[in-house]
Amino acid sequence: MRISVSSSFPILRGLGRWAVLAAGLMAAATSIVASSPSPALAGAAPGTTLVVGSSFIIRSIDPGRTVETTSNMINHATYDSLVTFEGEDLKTAKPSLAAEWKISEDGRTYTFKLRPNVKFPSGNPLTSADFKWSFERVKNLKSNPAFYLDPVQEIQTPDPLTLVLKLNAPNPALLAILSSPSLGAIDSKLVAQKGGVSGPEAKSSDKAESFLNNQSAGTGAFILSSYVPEQEVVLVRNPNHWRAAPAVDRIVIRNITEPATQKLQIQRGDIDIATALGQDQLASLRNVPNVSTRSSPAATTFYVLMNNNPDVGHAFSNPKVQEAVRYALDYDGILTIAGTGASRLAGVIPTGFPGALDPRTAFKTDREKSKALLKEAGLGDVKGQITYGSDQVIWGVQMAVLAQKIQADLAAVGIQLSLNGLPRATALQSYRDAKNQVGVWSWAADFPDGSNFFVYIPGRTVGKRAGWPEDASPAAKELAELARKAESEVDDAKRAALMQRIDKRIVEVGPYAPLFQPAVPVAFRSNVKGVTFHSVWGLDFYSISK
Amino acid sequence: MNLLGYIARRLLLLGPMLVGITLFSFLLSHAVPADPVTANLGEQAAADPEAVAAFRQAWGLDRPLHQQYLIYLWNLARGDFGTSISTKQAVVLDLRQRFPATVEVAIVAMAISLIVGVPLGILSAVKRDSLVDQVTRVLSLVGVSVPVFWLGLVALLVFYARLGWAPSPGRLSAGIIPPTFVTGFLLIDSLREWRMDAAVDALQHLALPAFVLSSYTLGMITRITRGSLLETLGEDYVRTARAKGAPNLTVIVRHAARNGLIPVVTMVGLSFGRLLSGAVVTESVFAWPGLGLYAFRSATSLDFPAIMGVGIVIATIYILVNLLVDIAYGLLDPRIRVG
Amino acid sequence: MALNRASCSAEAMAPRRSAARSGGILRYIPRPFRRSPLTIVASLVVIVWVLLAILAPIISPYGPLQQDIVKRLGPPTEAYWLGTDVLGRDILSRILYGARISIPVGVAAVILAAVLGSIVGSAAGFVGGLLDELMMRVTDVMLAFPTVILALVITAALGAGIQNAVIAIMVAWWPSYARLVRGLVLAIKEREYVLVARALGASGSRLLRMHVLPNIVSPIIILSTLDVGHAILTFASLSFLGLGPPPEIPEWGSMIAAGRDYFDQWWIGTFPGLAILSLTMAFNIVGDSLRDLLDPRLRKL
After folding, report:
1. How far is A386 from chain B (nearest CA, A)?
2. Which of A108, A531, B153, C145 would bridge with C150, disulfide CB 3.0–4.6 Å?
């Protein structure tokens, strides 16, 4: 008599058989699936690859249409501008495609001598005509970077290696502006063939954007190899670059939206550099072996905005209430949220820029004073609504968390704020339409110069959004005058002094409460060298090695 | 009414329904109070009226609403879903790139639900009230009650962050070169090129999101199978077959299963909708580049063409799946051929 | 008509053992409850949660908005049993207060959807003709959108907030109730006693009140109960995506979302999820038993 397996193992009888079989299959499947994930570089391209974690803010890679941080980082690697800044420096312009330059006595004519023998990847040589074409395109596309060239009245190209810019008025910030990746040299012949237009009809007839989103046309150390929207950008080394070859052959910039994931990936070595960590994630990376962290001060100010227009701001248009708010905020607590390396702001100009005030002179929390001021204002219970981008994370600081902190701080002195968090698009709309009663926002420098922060002046961009026009009060008029004076002041020292005066005054009479200047949270594997994070274009891939 | 007539009638209704869906999507997406201009122009440009006007003109936003809708319909008829304001690509291309990601994880989730759920349900029904049954019932209850996004987070926490078993969220590891995009389904594309490394990597990345996404349908299918089987096992014809001496397995497969599976088929159709819904949060948690995440991002950045494109595609898939389910239902049980 | 009940109440499809039970035996100590310890436990869980919600202001150790920045991101300790979140708020207190939102919202959303759906559905089923066709087409279109996606677009359009989220869920769910009720009404309309009553000259409204309504009430109640858990889940999902109440409000879904960025501080995201899980499971079990008790006919829906 055969002894069947199923009688020896009762579980194998009947349906048990199928259950065991299924379990076996599941186990096998699980073991395949759960085997350790492939090592990061299996099947990778030859040469050194740098993997960068980022949180994409890319609306376009076309230099004529972009000012966003991630696009700037890419274009800084693929295009070269006339001048540049080294590392994180914001003060001294260094030659890039312009080997040398001269500024006229009256500050209105800039003459640049271009570097000879520079070629685009297509083989076309770089000439001043390329710069003229690129600049005119930026101006005429009327897109995001167009305002950069507002100061420029005329562009002349007396010979293929000389570029002359004539300005409307002296503008000490011009070199800083010219370093922007959006003002890099584009291969005009190639892009014109692909539908690029630089003339006045550019805004409706230029069709080169999709070409430039997939291929770069600049002289930079790297070439754009591929761009998958919301996923990754790949850059490869430009073999015909005019400088010595960079240390890295291939750069993969991955969009990793979750800061927690990015933190784990840098910990594990799945990525080499993490640029989009939260401040809290950075803090927990400090003691991790093989990971270095860096907190470079960002050229960004965070501030609370109150609307000076009585129709919108209601109670918050009252100067006493505004001052009460400034005293009510728990700045130390806010600084904790702002993360490592963040610094207090006494004014609206961040540290590192001429005109910045000493953080030690910043407002100190004084709840009693705040309550007294509110009483003086005599408005009874102050209620309001604070608007912010609910999904916005700027330099690792979650705006939603900041808003809740401010809400709690003001509640402590009796001001009831309700949170009006909107998705970025909607929140921005309200902000730009000057409809925020109270808002918490940030302002980032578009180019490395203190005059960027004149936007807070009454009648200028942020001033308008805060309902603070020039004619709001004599103090406002005075400020506006001062600003104009500072802008045309050619002497650096005088200019700095003027800007400091302006900075102090803005906070005294303006509807703002400056909060802090954050530090950019960057983490990288310890074997990566040369990592710096510039306020405008982030990482400088040329100087990084592994 | 015969089956062919039924199908024909349903297909005929498809057209007007799709138009209805486009209208619905259009109205919904344009009910949003904010302006895509804000979402897509930088600070300085948005302050410049010329830049704003240029943008509006380029995207057709300066025309009256009904004109915009009609233009949209006209383009739609020619297969043009417009261009996404965020990605600057044709919406069709965006959808084409993301559609396989969602479908791939949904199919694997559905497969898990069926492969695990049906046998488990059967086992549970046959061994009623045993320990296996009790445990299965509790687990399937957990499956239908658990918030999918939370399960995803906990799964990431445990299997990715702590244990390191699961790879990082995403479809492929960073170092793996993706296979050539033919279908968009990573498993198919990599096997096509005999790229086993990519296929295994893709499978590893699929595991956790698919498992999490399957939680609801797995629980539900287990429950339905169990309940349905219990019901049919008690039916007359089954008892007769048993009395005649047919072995257990035969009874189950031949007699009970066919009828018992009718609700399961319906469930597959209904759970598909649930899977698509679940995809939004699952893709959000796992940063999975599929339709769900696309829908969410478009909705919050006011990318009208994208919102409408996604809405239409998802609704169409859903209708088609329902139609297939109804047909299958009709095939399985001629009694149920309601119009 | 295809069975397009696009909600989780496919549990209704799960038949129980067909004992030779004469329909509609209403015992006041219900057998399913007595027989299954699971159901007893589940009912207790629901009751406990409701009590916790009501008593939250009294029993919470801290206020839900009370911040202590210095103690932010702290692990579970004696002072803070479930740890603190990103602003130093006590998670236990926020979970307790969160029940005061989740439970009423779940119930309200379901009631609104059921009422609206029933009105439309019974009107369509009763009156028939063009109204019926119109309703069918409209619900077809609306049911073609998976719930969360529909709710997503609606809340994006209307803006975030509890009210709008409830409206979004109501708009997304009423079609399935309408279809359900329509089916029930159609079935009842053809019953003999209704036909007789009509022949005898009873008015439309009388028919509706006396014959139709009483018979549809109990299936609706059962399915609504089963849907409450689902409503709580959907609301939490919307909240998770950022479309619910403002972040300082202790809503469980948004609390979980806040935990996404903090794998190391796992307590932030884990505990609120357990709260949702326990409540939803409890509602599902109770709903199941209620169905078995009140109307075994629902098996065949």
Report:
1. 18
2. C145
- For residues B3-25, give the mean pLDDT: 74
Q: Is C277 exposed, middle or buried (0-12, 13-18, 19+ CB in 10 A)?
A: middle
- Chain A closest-CA separation from residue C263 CA (Å): 6
Q: What is the pLDDT of residue A526?
A: 93
The CA distance from A49 to B178, in Å, is 16
**Could you read off the pLDDT of B99-131 as tens digits, one per residue?**
899 989 999 999 999 899 988 988 888 887 788
Q: Which amino acid is at C43?
A: S
Would an 8 Å CB–CB cutoff place B200 in contact with chain A? yes
| CA max distance for chain A | 114
Distances (CA, A) of B273 to B144, B260, C5: 14, 22, 11
Cβ neighbours of B54 in A, within 8 Å: 141-143, 203-204
Any residues with CB less than 8 A from the CB of B132 and at least 6 apart, and which?
B123, B124
Under-70 pLDDT residues of chain A: 1-46
How many angstroms separate the CA of residue C295 from the nearest CA in chain A? 33
- Region of residue B170 (phi > 0: left; psi between -120 and 50: alpha; otherwise: beta): left
Query: How many C-beta neighbours within 10 Å does residue C296 have?
Result: 18
Pick from B44, B126, B175: CB nearest A43? B175
Distance CA A382, CA C126 (A): 55
Residues 228-267 on A with a CB inside 8 Å of B are 228-231, 252, 254, 256-258, 260-261, 264-265
Could you tell me the pTM of the whole model? 0.82
Spatial distance between the Cα atoms of C190 and C213, rounded to a whole number of angstroms: 14
Q: Which B-chain residues 113-152 have CB contacts (< 8 A) with chain A? A: 115-116, 119, 122-123, 126-127
Contact C140 B13 (CB under 8 A): yes
Show Cβ contacts of residue A179 under 8 Å, excluding neighbours closer than 6 positions: A81, A82, A83, A84, A85, A93, A96, A447, A448, A536
